[in-house]
């Protein structure tokens, strides 16, 4: 099946620092999504990317859909303590027919921000 | 802002018992999903559902699992005879099926299933 390799697995940073994480795959995806998950809760959508090469921002977050459609990165600028959590990339590949596709998730990046 | 809701938030059951997990997708969404996340692992696709039938399912979704949309608002996942390895967070998700953002899946808060 499709696999997403997400790195790094974890990051420990100081408040105010910038953060970068990325996902790569051997398969092409139609859409890339970035989610944040707090302990015991569901993934919350941060950014959605629909076209190869697309660069999208949401506040301090910036994400890009790679030109090859096989990778994506997420940057967080000027981190704050509430950025703590697990960040997941997810790729969607449409199966055709009546299927709208399913998400394949990366393994997650655990972010810790020290005040 | 509309959101996906799930009940219960936590379900504890004995091995071999049946459980039903409930979801209310966003009201104008027509395509629904169940995913699961074993503690400390990534989120995994189980099944997608559209127009009152399964659209796609993973190898995890065996004969012990079933899904149903019993009315216009609820979407359920039934596990017929639970096993210890079914212990996980189960997430419901939904998408709108028209417009520019059809690929964007919105997740519920999850049900933590513990099988003893």
Helix-strand sequence of chain A? EEEEEEEEEEE
Strand content of chain A: over 45%
Mean pLDDT of chain A: 92
Global Rg of chain A: 14 Å
**Fraction of helical residues of chain B:** under 10%
Tally of DSSP β-strands of chain A: 11
Oligomer: heterodimer
Mean pLDDT of chain B: 91
Please give a handful of descriptors for the protein shown.
heterodimer, A: 115 residues, mainly beta, 5-stranded antiparallel β-sheet, 0% helix, B: 116 residues, 7-stranded mixed β-sheet, 4-stranded antiparallel β-sheet, globular
Secondary structure layout plus pairing:
The complex is a heterodimer of chains A (115) and B (116).
Chain A: E1 4-7, E2 10-14, E3 19-25, E4 31-37, E5 44-49, E6 55-58, E7 61-65, E8 71-76, E9 85-93, E10 102-105, E11 109-114
Parallel strand pairs in A: 2-11
Antiparallel strand pairs in A: 1-3, 3-8, 4-5, 4-9, 6-7, 7-8, 9-10, 9-11
Chain B: E1 5-7, E2 10-13, E3 19-24, E4 31-37, E5 44-50, E6 53-57, E7 65-68, E8 75-79, E9 88-95, E10 106-107, E11 111-115
Parallel strand pairs in B: 2-11
Antiparallel strand pairs in B: 1-3, 3-8, 4-5, 4-9, 5-6, 7-8, 9-10, 9-11
Walkthrough of the structure:
- The complex is a heterodimer of chains A (115) and B (116).
- Chain A contains no helices and eleven strands.
- In chain A, strand 9 (85-93) and strand 10 (102-105) form a beta hairpin.
- Chain A is globular and about 50 Å long.
- In chain A, the strands form two sheets. In chain A, strands 2, 4, 5, 9, 10 and 11 form a six-stranded mixed β-sheet that branches. In chain A, strands 1-3-8-7-6 form a five-stranded antiparallel β-sheet, with no helix packed on it.
- Chain A has 115 residues and is an all-beta fold.
- With 116 residues, chain B is mainly beta.
- In chain B, 0% of the residues lie in helices and 48% in strands.
- Chain B is built from no helices and eleven strands.
- In chain B, the strands form two sheets. In chain B, strands 2, 4, 5, 6, 9, 10 and 11 form a seven-stranded mixed β-sheet that branches. Chain B has a four-stranded antiparallel β-sheet with strand order 1-3-8-7, with no helix packed on it.
- In chain B, 34% of the residues are buried.
- The model of chain B has no long low-confidence stretch (mean pLDDT 91).
- The A-B interface holds A 30-31, 33, 35, 40-45, 48, 50, 88, 90, 92, 94-95, 98-108 and B 4, 6, 31, 33, 35, 41-45, 48, 50-51, 55-56, 58, 89, 91, 93, 95, 97, 100-110, 112.
């Amino acid at each position: 099946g499709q696999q997403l390799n997400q790195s790094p697995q974890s990051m420990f940073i100081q408040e105010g620092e910038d953060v970068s994480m990325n996902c790569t795959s051997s398969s092409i995806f139609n859409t890339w999504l970035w989610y944040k998950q707090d302990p015991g809760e569901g993934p919350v959508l941060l950014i959605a990317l629909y076209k190869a090469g697309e660069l999208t921002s949401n506040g301090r977050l910036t994400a890009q859909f790679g030109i090859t459609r096989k990778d994506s990165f997420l940057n967080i600028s000027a981190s704050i303590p509430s950025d703590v959590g697990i960040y997941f990339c997810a790729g969607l590949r449409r199966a055709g027919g009546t299927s709208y596709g399913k998400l394949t998730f990366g393994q997650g990046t655990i972010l810790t921000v020290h005040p | 802002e509309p959101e996906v809701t799930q009940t219960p938030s936590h379900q504890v059951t004995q091995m071999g018992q049946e459980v039903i997990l409930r979801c209310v997708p966003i009201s104008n969404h027509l395509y629904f999903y169940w995913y699961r996340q074993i503690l400390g692992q990534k989120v995994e696709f189980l099944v997608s559902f559209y127009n009152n039938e399964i659209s796609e399912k993973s190898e995890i979704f065996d004969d012990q699992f079933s899904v149903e949309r019993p009315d216009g608002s609820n979407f359920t996942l039934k596990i017929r005879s639970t096993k210890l390895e079914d212990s996980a967070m189960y997430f419901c998700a939904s998408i709108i099926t028209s417009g520019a953002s059809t690929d964007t899946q919105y997740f519920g808060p999850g049900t933590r299933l513990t099988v003893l």
